Amino acid sequence: MTVTLDRTPNPDRIALALVNGVRVDAGGDYLRVSDPGTDEAVGWVPWGGADQARAAVDAASAAFGPWRAATPDFRANLLRRLALAMHEHTETLAHTLTREQGKPLTEARSEIAYAASFLDWSAEEGRRVAGEYMTAAASHRRILVMRQPLGVVAAITPWNFPAAMITRKLAPALAVGNTAVLKPAEQSPLTALAIAELACVVGFPPGVINVVTGDPDAIGQSWLSDARVRKLSFTGSTEVGRLLVQRAATHLTRLSLELGGHAPVVVFDDADLEVAVASVMSAKFRNAGQTCVCPNRVYVHRSVHEAFVSRMQSAIARLVVGHGLDAGVNVGPLIDDDAIAKVTEHLDDARARGAVVRTGGHLVQPRPGLARRFCAPTLLEGLTSEMRAAREETFGPVLGVQAFDTEAEAIALANALPYGLAAYAFTRGLDRALRVAEALDFGIVGLNETTVSTAQSAFGGTKLSGWGREGGKWGVEEFLEIKSVTIG
Ligand code: ADP
């Protein structure tokens, strides 16, 4: 992305970083946060670097002892209070989120509720962390297995879910006694700072949550070269994920990596097409297609192909594109000019290789005064494996459909890419559903369902989509160290 730095921004709209419970400046330039739909400045945050990153770790490190020693109930109460505060401030948070990220306000409100659900879930889960006690090889010996927090954990989050990606990482980490340093994405740091501010208000001790903003490379490098940082949880591109893996080698910092995806959908001839269309619609066009689990390629059995495509076409044509704060909007702007360029390239490439555009396929100007960052929701028929849209994450409102004849062919197509985050299948047959779920080489599978990310379930991928899981008890385990104590 291209960052815009200002030396003297509007002082009323600067959101400072939060370290040790105190608002801090970085003493240099400020990063301009823009509304992707209008290009207006929404606010500014400090352009921090290694110094700020280190100060955040100092604070988190100092806060770790007392936070770890506090009871799980104490921590759970604070997490629940934060969840409640987020619900109470939904309108303000959602407004900030829509302004900096672009998604429709209704979706931003849902994201705040979804983000709060990780706090509630982790509050309970953190109270149930337990050890084990067992006999050993010799009769006089016993083994005690403890689960303990890691220490300071770092989180680096993406721009597409500015609230939920924060709590999905921080809630389980904090619930079990870790302290945290966080760097939100340059495009959407204001929501993260607003949540951190609420955390201070509800009584989180200083240093337990620290949020810094600025140069991602310098901040990430500082954390991975600091032995006090015991884990980094990252959501973002595979390219940056690879870099972090290399840098984590210095101190063998544990990593959770939630990277790119390219989700397939398989629609069998016995599927309930209404359910399939409605599910694909909501998962594909949410956040203008800028989610890592959104369907990109749909493989439909030839016998129901036209029925599926025509229903999708009508449903897509009903979507309203516009600024996220405008009434009745379903699809907001894309995040930046690079995103628009990528979608345009994928569309040009698909057309050149013979795809038929059933609806959409072009940029739109929903009303005067908006930036050129809106894309009509698009349905491509005749997708083939050579097309870029079938191989690379488009991250936009573009859906491609390809016909298949056999189950084996559909599974092979679905598994063909190096990504393995989410996949979906629609069928009424129980035997087929289970067979297909087992065969899909993905971390997440939706059967007759595309809502796959919840506080209870395990979210994460295989292959180039990353390591580790977030959510549920698995998300909590990622932030615990196992210690085996042998007693003579
Ligand atoms: P996207 O393409 O979705 O923007 P990125 O992987 O570039 O994905 O960004 C995801 C997160 O990673 C953001 O918070 C971004 O600031 C951060 N990031 C980008 N480059 C680096 C880096 N070199 N080191 C650490 N974090 C980085």
What is the C-level CATH assignment of the largest domain?
Alpha Beta
> Globular, elongated, flat, extended or rod-shaped: what is the shape?
globular
Query: What is the annotated CATH architecture of the largest domain?
Result: 3-Layer(aba) Sandwich
According to CATH, the homologous superfamily of the largest domain is Aldehyde Dehydrogenase, Chain A, domain 1
Radius of gyration: 23 Å
What structural category characterises the helix and strand content? alpha/beta
Domains, number: 2
Describe the structure.
The protein is α/β, with parallel strands linked by helices and 488 residues long. It folds into two domains: 5-259 and 466-487, 3-Layer(aba) Sandwich (Aldehyde Dehydrogenase, Chain A, domain 1); 263-454, Aldehyde Dehydrogenase, Chain A, domain 2 (3-Layer(aba) Sandwich), CATH 3.40.309. The protein has helices spanning 50-69, 72-88, 90-101, 105-127, 164-175, 190-202, 216-224, 238-247, 273-285, 305-317, 337-352, 388-391, 407-415, 430-439, 472-477; strands at 5-6, 17-19, 22-24, 30-34, 41-46, 132-135, 142-149, 152-156, 179-183, 209-211, 229-235, 254-258, 263-267, 295-301, 356-359, 363-364, 374-375, 378-381, 398-404, 419-420, 422-426, 444-447, 462-463, 466-467, 480-487. The protein has a seven-stranded mixed sheet with strand order 15-18-19-14-13-21-22, with helices on both faces. Helix 3 (90-101) crosses helix 4 (105-127), helix 4 runs parallel beside helix 5 (164-175) and helix 9 crosses helix 10. The longest helix is centred in the first third of the chain and has 23 residues, at 105-127. The termini are far apart. The relative contact order is 0.13. The mean pLDDT is 97. The site of adenosine-5'-diphosphate has 14 residues, from helix 7 and helix 8. The site of adenosine-5'-diphosphate (ADP) has 14 residues, from helix 7 and helix 8.
